[in-house]
User: What shape does this take?
Amino acid sequence: MRARCDSLLVETDWLVARLDDPRLRVVDIRGIIKPPDQPKPWYLAQREAYLETHIPGAVFIDWTDDIVEPVAPIHMTLAGPARFKALMERLGIGDGHAVVVYDDTGGIAPRLWWALNYYGHGEVAVLNGGWTKWQQEGRPVTADLPRHAPAVFTPHVQPGWRVGTAEVRAAMGNGTAALVDCRHPREFAGEIGRGERKGRIPSAVNVPVTRFFNAADRTWKNPPEIRKMFEAAGVTPDRRVITYCNAGVSAAVGLFALKLLDYPDAANFAGSWYEWEADPANPVQTGA
Assistant: This one.
């Protein structure tokens, strides 16, 4: 069975049947996002866990470093085209490969899904339930490191997948788009936070992405359940939607959910709160 990622989510049985397909690349991007009221560092990769055991053939990406632009003024900015290209090619991920990404929480894999789409590589899917479900089902694992040959990866930036502060300001001012804050309600209210300032972008509504997953196996909830969460906040398919969080990671989860629901016009404010708060002229709102 040849690997083709024709859907945003793939199941464990789909993947296990295609592990030997030379056209498939599997990426382990396990990591940790600690709550903002816990001590720093809040963002951690789990390379040691990967080295101990992982899905056969999977390569590892450190989401806190490998796909980040180290000299960018905004914390956790996505790696630029040259850095992203070099990483993909070093890992053996090329233009002709189908990619499946997994983590163990559901909250990080969509970051790479979004980044690949932003750079024009649309044949990428997220493993539903990730490492958690894979282990629960007793699927094959290994400590062996893959030896993929270097590949050619050609970035083609797709601007529609990403917005910046200017469009967010416009949406805030004239209601042209729904701004969705994907963080915890206490961050939305400004009670806790990761940045220099606390609060939210005025006019934003709160749809916490942690509610999208089933606790037992970290699989995604059924689309009708997720749709109700968005619609309860006034986020309907007839509106343009912009998602944000602190660094664009949970925002990618929110965007992934919107794509699952076939919302036709949605994008990630990739710089998110870190970019917004960097300009003291940008207003901040607090309270429930």
User: Anything to note?
Assistant: The mean pLDDT is 96. The chain has two domains: 9-157, 160-278. DSSP finds ten helices and twelve strands in the chain. The longest strand covers residues 24-28.
